[in-house]
Amino acid sequence: MDGTGPTILFGYGGFQASFPPAYKPEMGKLWLENGGVFVQANIRGGGEFGPGWHQAALRENRQRAFDDFAAVARDLEQRRITSPRHLGIYGRSNGGVLTSVSITQHPELFNAAVIESPLIDMLRYQELPAGASWMGEYGDPRIPSDAEFIARYSAYQQLRPEVKYPRVYITTNTRDDRVHPGHARKFAARLGDLGHDHIYFEDTAGGHSNDADPVANARRWARHYVYLAQQLMD
């Protein structure tokens, strides 16, 4: 409790999906046994506390999910569990919205982010496969009033050349048929164009879940934890 604990903060906050505490064998072996800390944030937009918890962060209220996540990060710092130097975040799919927005809105809070299979360009997400089915969650960017509140947080549009961002790790899958890899590709390209250091990895086999092949999945988690250890552990 001296602020030096290398910490992974996980969040999702969407689609009424609940993430109760669960045993994660790869985390136990590759992170916790090496002195790492893991925190699971049950933020609005998820389903951990019932339908109202989900509905509180729909559409124009999406910012509440991001604010909740940032509040957890600040609490970890205030309680001396960790500090921005040692705090990283991880999110996948809708969690990629969360992590990409978090580093653009609060880059001072984090030193690492694993952004996996993410939605990022929220002003065009409905144009890509499966995207149109999520408009009840995020809103319809084709409607000007919806585009206005989406544009305020969409990480692809919010990147700035003068801001110091953590060195993020963006990863996707060529065969992802749920969240198009174009989101991750465009975000990495824009980071590079703006002069920001980042890591990009695109697997060519698998899909959105990445876990049908246990060997490939083990390699995937190994990449995550090597990056997080390099960024967060002294």
Describe the structure.
The structure is a single chain. The chain is an alpha/beta fold and 234 residues long. It contains nine helices and six strands; from the N terminus they run βαβααβαβαααβαβα. It has helices at 25-30, 51-55, 63-78, 94-105, 135-138, 144-151, 155-158, 182-193, 214-232; strands at residues 7-11, 37-41, 87-92, 112-116, 168-173, 198-203. The protein has a six-stranded parallel sheet, with helices on both faces. β1, α1 and β2 (37-41) form a beta-alpha-beta unit. It is globular, with a radius of gyration of 17 Å.
What are the SSEs and their pairings?
Layout: E1 7-11, H1 25-30, E2 37-41, H2 51-55, H3 63-78, E3 87-92, H4 94-105, E4 112-116, H5 135-138, H6 144-151, H7 155-158, E5 168-173, H8 182-193, E6 198-203, H9 214-232
Parallel strand pairs: 1-2, 1-3, 3-4, 4-5, 5-6
Tertiary shape: globular
Rg (C-alpha, Å) = 17 Å
Let me know the average pLDDT: 95
- Largest sheet geometry: 6 strands, parallel
Number of helical runs?
9
Task: State the share of residues found in helices, binned by percent.
Answer: 25-40%
Uncertain residue segments: none
Strand elements, count = 6
Q: What is the CA-CA span between the terminal residues?
A: 16 Å
Structural class: alpha/beta
Any descriptors?
234 residues; globular; 6 strands
Task: Report a brief summary of the structure.
Helix content is 37%, strand content 14%. With 234 residues, it is an alpha/beta fold.
